[in-house]
Amino acid sequence: MRCARRRRARSDVELLRPSSADEATAALGNGSRALAGGTELVPLLREGLVRADTLVQIGDVVPRGIDGTRIGAGTTLAELEEEPQIPQALREACAHAASPQLRAMGTLGGNLLQATRCWYWRLGFDCWLHGGERCLAKDGAHREHAIFGNESCASAHPSDIAAALVALGATLRTTRRELPVTELYRLPSEDNREVTTLARDELILDLTVPSPEASTYLKAMDRRKWAFPLVGVAAARFADGIRVALAGVAPIPWTLDDPEGLDAATPLPGTAYKVEIARALVRRALAGVAAQPR
Ligand SMILES: Cc1cc2nc3c(=O)[nH]c(=O)nc-3n(C[C@H](O)[C@H](O)[C@H](O)COP(=O)(O)OP(=O)(O)OC[C@H]3O[C@@H](n4cnc5c(N)ncnc54)[C@H](O)[C@@H]3O)c2cc1C
Ligand code: SF4
Fold first, then answer.
1. What pLDDT sits at residue 246?
2. For residue 146, what are the CA distances in angstroms to 10, 63, 134, 157, 181?
3. Quick one: which atom of ligand 1 is closest to the CA of 204?
4. Distance CA 71, CA 68 (A)
5. Does residue 92 line the site of ligand 1, with CB under 6 A?
6. Cα of 250 from ligand 1 centre, angstroms
7. DSSP E strands: which ranges in the chain?
8. How much is the pTM?
9. At residue 14, does pLDDT exceed 70?
């Protein structure tokens, strides 16, 4: 097995502060990266897992704040967890994520675009997602990994918030297009190992989050606080039915059409326990949203 702390971080990175979204996207692309709260990007740069000649500080050009059903991508998780106007599932997903310090810095846009927490990837092993030949977690340590969509890469999507937004049927507005949050993500394939559909020079500007009749987010984790989801379950009730989405179970947020969908899980030996946790949380979430008044 080849192990490489692949690259050293660069110390001569330029910081740009554009004053418009157009200026920011023009500066993005080869060798540059958008910087929001930096809680994800800065550690990746420091570890040499992401390379950038230029950081484009997007704080002044990406909307921040909540206006009815529209939420700026620059809004922090701390601002969202305290906002009574947004659906409960989104508030709970934010409140259960990371630590208070990280939530004060971390933005909604950055959360949706965080990289996998798979330790093989984070430690720079030459695994499939890094362009190598095989997934090292499948034959190695994979207790936190996927039970769906794990054919090539068995990583588990770490965003509580993305699962909540998928269940809520939220849409994104970027500098190029409007799309459902589900279409921000794709399962990586042999010829394209990206897990999102966002172009390098595309910015998420804001999200529109429909108001459900009732919603909830439940999370199983190793510690009661400051832990990524082993399994997260979001459920949202609308007039035409209940939508369910899961975090921590596939390389991308995972939609579940009905509880029986869990019978189609393809767990690894070390992740079979997640199927049972998911069954229990889905049952509880469905009962929770059925019981909530409008
Ligand atoms: C120790 C730790 C624990 C955590 N625990 C959890 C958890 O339990 N649950 C959970 O859901 N999350 C968790 N997180 C993730 C955390 O919520 C994210 O790090 C944070 O929200 C990222 O936001 P940021 O603004 O700091 O992003 P940045 O670090 O600035 O950016 C992250 C990525 O997003 C890109 N980006 C940012 N904003 C935009 C935009 N508007 N348009 C296009 N690209 C953009 C950047 O280029 C970069 O690639 C944890 C993080 C840490 C470090
Ligand atoms: S789960 Fe994905 S990121 Fe982790 S070792 Fe396998 S291919 Fe790499």
1. 98
2. 33, 33, 16, 8, 20
3. 42
4. 8
5. no
6. 18
7. 14-16, 32-35, 54-57, 66-67, 70-72, 171-174, 178-180, 204-208, 214-220, 231-238, 241-247, 254-256
8. 0.96
9. yes
